[in-house]
Structures are given as C-alpha cells and as structure tokens.
C-alpha cells in the first residue's frame, strides 16, 4: 500500500542499483587518477563532477512525488548541478599529488568495522517502533 503517491502498482526504476553501478565506475576512475599521481584537486573535482552527473540522472528516474520541483527540475537535480560546478571549480586549482596507497591489515580491519557500523546504522529495521521511517520493509 502506498500512502504518499499514486504509484501503487506502477513499476519504478531501481535507482539504488543505478547509484551503486555509477559509484563503482566512478570509483575505478578515481582509483586510476590516484595511481597516476594526478593532483588531488583533479581527483576531488572529478569525484564531484561524476557524482553530480550520476545524481542528476538518477533523480530524473526516482519516484518521489514529495520532492519540490523548481523550474522543471527536482530540488536534488539542482543540488547535483551545484555539485558539478563545485567539481569543475576544484579541477582548476593546483595541488600536490596524492600519497601512495598502502593497505595494512590494521587499515582493512578499521574499514571493515566502519562498514559494519554504517550498515547497522542505516540498514536495520525496527518493526515494533512507531517512529517515522523506522520500518523499512
């Protein structure tokens, strides 16, 4: 049952999957820039540009009728345009190359712990709770 929209029975796009796929491609591109010793401003700017473009397209397919529309674009699309502009500006600055990537078991353990914490904080249902958005299913 849908309460906020008239999308009951209407197929919607798997925008979460689109986001994951875009992030994988963007991550590979950023890793290549990092390994090639490109300036950090280029790496950060490329992330902002890629993320903004992906988010702009993703928001066009997202079925959220409560999102405000301004001048024909959803609010989040305007934020994505801003992100692209910030990224373009970042790429204009000069900066040093990034440090060499080093992976140690300690670093990987910390990354796994933080990933677990993020997954628990954002992915757990609370089916008995009456708080808004507590029941994800």
Give an overview of the whole structure:
This protein is an all-alpha fold and 137 residues long. It has two domains: 15-99; 102-137, no CATH class. It has four helices and two strands, in the order ααββαα. The protein has helices at 15-35, 40-61, 75-90, 105-123, and strands at residues 69-70, 73-74. Strands 1-2 form a two-stranded antiparallel ribbon. Strand 1 and strand 2 (73-74) form a beta hairpin. Helix 2 packs antiparallel against helix 3 (75-90). The longest helix is centred in the middle third of the chain and has 22 residues, at 40-61. The model has no long low-confidence stretch (mean pLDDT 87).
Bin the strand percentage: under 5%
| Spatial arrangement of strands, main beta sheet | 1-2
Task: Report how far apart the termini are.
Answer: 12 Å
CA radius of gyration: 19 Å
Mean pLDDT: 87
> Which consecutive residue ranges, at least 5 long each, have pLDDT under 50?
none
């Amino acid at each position: 049952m849908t309460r906020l929209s008239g999308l009951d029975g209407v197929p919607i796009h798997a925008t979460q999957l689109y986001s994951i796929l875009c992030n994988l491609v963007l991550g590979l591109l950023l890793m290549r820039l990092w390994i090639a010793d490109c300036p950090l401003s280029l790496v950060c700017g490329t992330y902002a540009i890629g993320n903004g473009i992906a988010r702009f397209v993703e928001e066009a397919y997202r079925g959220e009728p409560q999102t405000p529309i301004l001048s024909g674009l959803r609010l989040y699309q305007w934020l994505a345009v801003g992100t692209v502009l910030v990224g373009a500006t970042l790429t204009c600055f000069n900066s040093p190359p990034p440090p060499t990537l080093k992976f140690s078991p300690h670093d990987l353990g910390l990354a796994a712990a933080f990933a677990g914490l993020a997954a628990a904080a954002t992915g757990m249902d609370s089916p008995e709770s009456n708080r808004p958005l507590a029941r994800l299913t």
